[in-house]
Amino acid sequence: LYDDGQRFELSKMADKAVALAEKRLMDVKLGEFFSWLGTRDFTPNGLLGSVRKGQERYYNKYINVKKGGIGGVAMLLTGYVVLSYVWEYDHLKHDRWRKYH
């Protein structure tokens, strides 16, 4: 479909060099995953920065929008309910098998 000049330009644009540490998780290939994981900052400040960045991205994508709806808040509440259930599952499982007589 393309002549050689166009094909070369398309492949040249797609092969833009990006440092492995700057790639997002979804852009990392399976063979590069452990090398990429080694570039992550697992110190307490690095983990706190990652949580803050994730919170900021979530807020800007779902909450801080001009034409927002209930979707972002509902997703947050659903996550809270699921997380609470997971934390209390062992206790709930214990109650289920207990005899009350």
TrEMBL record:
<protein>
    <recommendedName>
        <fullName>ATP synthase subunit f, mitochondrial</fullName>
    </recommendedName>
</protein>
<keyword id="KW-0066">ATP synthesis</keyword>
<keyword id="KW-0496">Mitochondrion</keyword>
<keyword id="KW-0375">Hydrogen ion transport</keyword>
<dbReference type="GO" id="GO:0046933">
    <property type="term" value="F:proton-transporting ATP synthase activity, rotational mechanism"/>
</dbReference>
<keyword id="KW-0812">Transmembrane</keyword>
<keyword id="KW-1133">Transmembrane helix</keyword>
<dbReference type="GO" id="GO:0045259">
    <property type="term" value="C:proton-transporting ATP synthase complex"/>
</dbReference>
<keyword id="KW-0813">Transport</keyword>
<dbReference type="GO" id="GO:0031966">
    <property type="term" value="C:mitochondrial membrane"/>
</dbReference>
<feature type="transmembrane region" description="Helical">
    <location>
        <begin position="68"/>
        <end position="87"/>
    </location>
</feature>
<dbReference type="InterPro" id="IPR019344">
    <property type="entry name" value="F1F0-ATPsyn_F_prd"/>
</dbReference>
<keyword id="KW-0406">Ion transport</keyword>
<dbReference type="Pfam" id="PF10206">
    <property type="entry name" value="WRW"/>
</dbReference>
<keyword id="KW-0138">CF(0)</keyword>
<dbReference type="GO" id="GO:0042776">
    <property type="term" value="P:proton motive force-driven mitochondrial ATP synthesis"/>
</dbReference>
<keyword id="KW-0472">Membrane</keyword>
<comment type="similarity">
    <text>Belongs to the ATPase F chain family.</text>
</comment>
